[in-house]
């Protein structure tokens, strides 16, 4: 933070013109010709701000680079800061922490290349803290009142005032007319933001200014720092705990992905090294075996018979992901996700202690009501905790709003399902079109597409691309709907608001992103029927249900996963980095022609993009959706954690770069955890065990191969597996019968076209595998969760020790204060407290009087 030392006035400054009072917030507006109502609102609002004690200074539009924007600079003096710090129970230091830190790890020198300078990692010493009390201000370590509250705390206090100050003369006439948010929405002000302390590429001209933004850019936001640790304490000090917690979680998630990526890559390499041992692919590609097996048409009318060896390439590709290593990796990821969540809880508990967030949730629920809740809820009732009257929403109104909100979410989820059904219909219809392009010869491939692409693969790729486009369009449309219905519910606190919005957005995006993968994994090829009795979608004779490639549906699931996951990550990085940069470049085009000395600090920040109250929400949502891809369907694509790791290494620095260089400084906010996202991650971790077990059992061909090798092959090898896995259908136009994927009795058998006993053996083996895998993974998960406590023992001990010391110091402070007061009173009335050793404080004072 910057010291309030008067210097020659510069427009690139964070102080008022006097060079002493710090600018804690900036409001901007444009004085329209027809804006008399807006002008009246601003006049009343600013007058009310001054009544509260804030100090304002206005920069005329003639001083701005565009010649039409006014800037109102806001300063909070000590009395205002002290009053509201008391109201918000902001914790401040009262003694240097003297508990020894024994967190140094052995062989710590190995981490030296990844470390940052100490003054960056720990920008301030560790203190014992307690909620600020204005009446006991001498108890706290106040060396300088102007610098006692850091800028992040100052802008948080000022925003609290701005969001509750009325802009109507008679507050009783319309209680809804208050708060900076409504003034921004109705255009009275164009922006409201705290200032960055310097330019990001250079230090402040004031030598006594710390230039924390510059330090963050130099040591954190540049991509060349990707291997360095994150300066989380500096991030927390500059941006607040809420943003600090996000980057702590993202960094920890990225570190844990390293282990999953290494194991996944080893499993992929195993599939590559066992390429030549793939007996079933050799049989498919063999001219003597696959070249002599004629397969039934994959669609009606337009599709012809084809030979099995045309799927040679997809069979080899499928082996890279569908091998014994897949089973091991699915089990490993079930354990990995548990370790990730348990170790994060420990990391989070340590941050809660270090950042004074241990008791924060209770404080927020009790004290920080949303301004919208206060204005829209006209009913009042007694709060049992604070014993004060507060607004509340009647239960009938709350139920009605919740029902309407739930119905809206269900409607949009139904819309997604309708779109997915449309994509499935596209797959069924277009496959026939691709097939019709093929030559009459059953052994040829698509001429237009190329010699290695089958109609199945072409259909799968184009359908995945179309599905991705639909996903992005629906996301844009639903985003506004989710915010609207959450506003309609009128949540009580900011935490409750974010949790409600989180659930709505996640439910929608879960269905939006994952439904196509669920279809390929668990529905495609499962309800096909057999020749002469095929199943059709909705009974339409033109839409025959899809079959899997003879190599299995796993390769198609991999294709779907790669396209959607990679496309989302690439599009997300472009949207996050390129779009703000282009908008800022265009918005500051005029100012770039002015000398730097005339381009004021508030104008520089005004030309940046606003981070918004939900800016962090979208960052979490992006990462949680990615988490779903690498856990729910990881059995089909072991390289998914590696792709996620590469993306997240970039993501950490992209998020840091855009926050430091492309966005206005967000209002500091507190958060003791990642909120509702933690429960969502826990739910996805449990679901991932089930989905991966089903993928291995029903989507992969692993179980049928193992059953064949151990139960139907005396030599315990895979010779003859392909012929065994295909059923026979009698046709009169060919010299030989055609084949199809299934386990059914051949024509002429007394149970012709009924499932064979091998089918039931395989089904039993699949169900047994699911039960065994789930139980093994869940037992290990619960054992790991039990063995690893959520709060480290040293942190638990330090929390108890600090609470004890806080009480002791407060007690000693009260005793010393009482002694001083009694001594002063005794001197005034010639009484000595020692005369009344058995009397209380009030009794002694009464005797003296």
Automatic annotation (TrEMBL):
Q: Where does this protein chiefly localize?
A: membrane
Q: Could you tell me where this protein is found in the cell?
A: Cell membrane; Membrane
Say if the entry is tagged with keyword Iron.
no
Transmembrane stretches, start-end: 246-273, 324-344, 409-437, 457-478, 627-650, 680-699, 767-788
**Family matches, as InterPro entries:** Anoct_dimer (IPR032394), Anoctamin (IPR007632), Anoctamin_TM (IPR049452)
A GO MF label: chloride channel activity
All residue ranges annotated as the Anoctamin transmembrane domain in the record: 235-802
Q: Tell me, what's a Pfam family for it?
A: Anoctamin
Q: What organism does this protein naturally occur in?
A: Amphiprion ocellaris (Clown anemonefish)
Q: How does it sit in the membrane?
A: Multi-pass membrane protein
Alphabetic keyword roster:
Cell membrane, Glycoprotein, Membrane, Transmembrane, Transmembrane helix
Does Membrane appear among the keywords?
yes
Q: Which family does it belong to?
A: Belongs to the anoctamin family.
Q: One GO cellular component term, please give it.
A: plasma membrane
- Pinpoint the Anoctamin dimerisation domain residues: 15-232
* Name of this protein: Anoctamin
């Amino acid at each position: 933070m910057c010291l309030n030392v008067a210097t020659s006035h510069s427009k690139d400054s964070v102080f008022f013109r006097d060079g002493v009072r710090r600018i804690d917030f900036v409001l901007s507006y444009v004085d329209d010709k027809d804006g008399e109502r807006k002008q009246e609102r601003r006049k009343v609002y600013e007058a009310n701000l001054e009544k509260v004690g804030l100090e304002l200074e206005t920069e005329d539009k003639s001083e701005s680079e565009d010649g039409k924007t006014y800037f109102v600079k806001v300063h909070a003096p000590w009395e205002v800061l002290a009053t509201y710090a008391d109201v918000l129970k902001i914790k401040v230091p009262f003694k240097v922490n003297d508990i020894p830190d024994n967190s140094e790890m052995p062989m710590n020198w190995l981490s030296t290349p990844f470390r940052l300078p100490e003054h960056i990692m720990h920008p301030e010493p560790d203190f014992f803290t307690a909620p600020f009390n204005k009446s006991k201000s001498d108890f706290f370590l106040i060396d300088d009142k102007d610098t006692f509250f850091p800028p992040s705390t100052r802008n948080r206090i000022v925003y609290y005032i701005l969001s509750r100050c009325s802009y109507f003369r008679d507050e009783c006439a319309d209680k809804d007319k208050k708060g900076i948010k409504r003034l921004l929405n109705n255009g009275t002000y164009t922006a409201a933001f705290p200032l960055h302390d310097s330019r990001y590429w250079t230090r402040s001209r004031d030598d006594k200014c710390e230039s924390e933004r510059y330090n963050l850019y130099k040591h954190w936001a540049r991509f060349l720092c990707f291997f360095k640790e994150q300066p989380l304490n500096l991030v927390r000090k500059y941006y607040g705990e809420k943003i600090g917690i996000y980057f702590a979680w993202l960094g920890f998630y990225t570190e844990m992905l390293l282990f999953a990526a290494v194991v996944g890559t080893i499993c992929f390499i195993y599939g590559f090294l066992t390429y030549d041992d793939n007996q079933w692919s050799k049989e498919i590609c063999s001219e003597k075996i696959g070249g002599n097996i004629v397969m039934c048409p994959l669609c009606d009318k337009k599709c012809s018979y084809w030979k099995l060896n045309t799927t040679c390439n997809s069979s080899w590709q499928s082996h890279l992901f569908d091998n014994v290593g897949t089973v091991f990796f699915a089990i490993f990821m079930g354990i990995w996700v548990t370790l990730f969540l348990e170790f994060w809880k420990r990391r989070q508990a340590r941050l809660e202690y270090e950042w004074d967030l241990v008791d924060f949730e209770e404080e927020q629920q009790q004290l920080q009501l949303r301004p919208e809740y206060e204005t829209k809820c006209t009913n009042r009732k007694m709060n049992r905790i604070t014993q004060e009257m507060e607004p509340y929403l009647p239960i009938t109104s709350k139920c009605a709003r919740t029902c309407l909100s739930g119905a809206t979410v269900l409607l949009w989820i139904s819309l997604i399902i309708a779109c997915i059904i449309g994509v499935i219909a596209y797959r069924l219809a277009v496959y026939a079109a691709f097939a019709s392009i093929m030559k009459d010869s059953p052994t040829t491939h698509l001429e237009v597409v190329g010699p290695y692409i089958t109609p199945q693969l072409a259909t799968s790729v184009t359908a995945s691309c179309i599905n991705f486009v639909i996903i992005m369009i629906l996301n844009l449309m639903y985003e506004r709907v989710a915010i609207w219905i959450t506003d309609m519910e009128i949540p009580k606190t900011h935490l409750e608001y974010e949790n409600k919005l989180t659930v709505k957005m996640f439910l929608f995006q879960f269905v939006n992103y994952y439904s196509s993968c669920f279809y390929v994994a668990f529905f495609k090829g499962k309800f096909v029927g057999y020749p002469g009795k095929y199943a059709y979608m909705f009974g339409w004779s033109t839409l025959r249900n899809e079959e899997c490639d003879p190599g299995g549906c796993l390769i198609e699931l991999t294709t779907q996963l790669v396209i959607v996951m990679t496309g989302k990550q690439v599009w997300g990085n472009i949207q996050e980095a390129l779009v703000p940069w282009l908008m800022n470049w265009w918005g500051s085009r005029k100012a770039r022609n002015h000398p730097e000395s005339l381009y004021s600090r508030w104008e520089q920040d005004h030309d940046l993009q606003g981070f918004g109250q939900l800016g962090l929400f979208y960052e979490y949502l992006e990462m949680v959706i990615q988490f779903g891809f690498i856990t729910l369907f990881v059995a089909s694509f072991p390289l998914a954690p590696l792709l996620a790791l590469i993306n997240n290494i970039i993501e950490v620095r992209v998020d840091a770069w855009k926050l430091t260089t492309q966005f206005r400084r967000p209002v500091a906010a507190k958060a003791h955890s990642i909120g509702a996202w933690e429960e969502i991650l826990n739910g996805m971790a449990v679901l991932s065990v089930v989905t991966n077990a089903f993928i291995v059992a029903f989507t992969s061909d692993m179980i049928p191969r193992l059953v064949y090798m151990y139960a139907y092959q005396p030599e315990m090898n895979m010779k003859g597996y392909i012929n065994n896995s295909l059923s026979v259908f009698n046709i009169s136009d060919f010299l030989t019968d055609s084949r199809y994927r299934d386990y059914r009795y051949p024509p002429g058998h007394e149970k012709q076209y009924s499932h064979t006993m091998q089918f039931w053996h395989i089904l039993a083996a699949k169900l047994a595998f699911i039960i065994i895998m789930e139980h093994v993974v869940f037992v290990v998960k619960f054992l790991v969760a039990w063995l690893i406590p959520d709060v480290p023992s040293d942190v638990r001990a330090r929390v108890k020790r600090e609470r004890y010391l806080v009480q002791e110091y407060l007690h000693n402070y009260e005793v010393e204060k009482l002694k001083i007061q009694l001594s002063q009173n005794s001197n005034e009335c010639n009484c000595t407290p020692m005369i009344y050793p058995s009397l209380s404080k009030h009794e002694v004072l009464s005797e003296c009087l």
